[in-house]
Amino acid sequence: MIKEKFSTLWAYIESLENTINDQIKKIEQLNPDNEDKLINLAYQLHNIYSVYEDMFKEISIIFENDIDRNTDYHKYLLKRMTLSIPNIRPNFLSEKSYSILGEMLGFRYVFRHAYNYSLSQEKIKILKKKFTDNFHYIKRDIEIFKNFLEENFR
């Protein structure tokens, strides 16, 4: 039963990686030179963080059987992915990936709650560049974790 649970997690992470790769292509191609494209880019950045968060939730459920739904749930879940839990699992994210994804989480919060707020083209362009320039760190962290799953549970 344990082997199947971790093999399923590996497959789930793999499927989300495919979704992320598709999202990255969309993000890289978008140039927010008008309001519609800016909103589309903001939406794609929002979506890609949500895919990562789905991954974090599943890892927490599988390894720790628990997700606290406190007021800082999203920040706590992200921080939790930097923790190496002895005899349970290694960290999922490096500090570099945590920093990048922390900015993405902050942006997602603004995007979701910006009812009377205009999106800043400059800020979104900066976030896009920062994310696409550093995406390889997150990708590397995911591969390291998948290798851990393969070596220990497949």
Could you write a compact summary of the structure shown?
This protein has five helices and no strands.
Task: Write the topology of this structure.
Elements: H1 2-29, H2 35-64, H3 73-80, H4 95-113, H5 121-153
Model description:
- This protein is 77% helix and 0% strand.
- By secondary structure, it is mainly α.
- It has one domain (2-153): Four Helix Bundle (Hemerythrin (Met), subunit A).
- The longest helix is centred in the last third of the chain and has 33 residues, at 121-153.
- The mean pLDDT is 91.
CATH top level class name: Mainly Alpha
Q: Which residue ranges are poorly predicted, with pLDDT under 50 across at least 5 consecutive positions?
A: none
Count of helical stretches:
5
Approximate strand percentage? under 5%
Order of helices and strands: HHHHH
| CATH fold descriptor | Four Helix Bundle (Hemerythrin (Met), subunit A)
Number of domains: 1
Radius of gyration: 16 Å
Shape: globular
CATH architectural group: Up-down Bundle
Main sheet characteristics = none
Distance between the termini: 12 Å
> How many beta-strand runs?
0
The helix-and-strand class reads: mainly alpha
Q: What percentage of residues falls in helices of 4 or more residues?
A: over 70%
Mean pLDDT over the residues: 91
Any descriptors?
5 helices, mainly alpha, Four Helix Bundle (Hemerythrin (Met), subunit A), 154 residues
